[in-house]
Write a structure and sequence with these properties.
4 helices, about 5% strand, Arc Repressor Mutant, subunit A, about 80 residues, mainly alpha, about 45% helix, two-stranded antiparallel ribbon
Length: about 80
């Protein structure tokens, strides 16, 4: 499966399985600064319900999308923080 195929939802990929959908979900989880490992444990451990399947690669790509559209930034102690806090 190519990155283009999973980036945006379409008739073969549900919104919850798309990277854009996951990016929106992660943005909602950033109520406080978190490390990538903390975000992974929230999503992978099903502590926060999400209907789609999440791989670590997709988690990192979703964080990259949030950086690219200037919604999050990295702190000096390697934590991802929502810019709108």
């Amino acid at each position: 499966m190519s990155i283009q195929t999973i980036l945006l939802p379409h008739k073969h990929v549900r919104f919850s399985d798309s990277i854009v959908g996951l990016a929106g979900h992660l943005r909602g989880l950033l109520t406080e600064p978190r490390t990538v490992d903390e975000l992974w444990s929230l999503v992978d451990g099903k502590m926060i319900p999400w209907p789609g399947s999440v791989s670590f690669t997709n988690l990192v790509l979703a964080i990259d999308i949030l950086f690219a559209i200037d919604q999050v930034e990295l702190t000096t102690d390697s934590r991802v923080v929502n810019k709108e806090q």
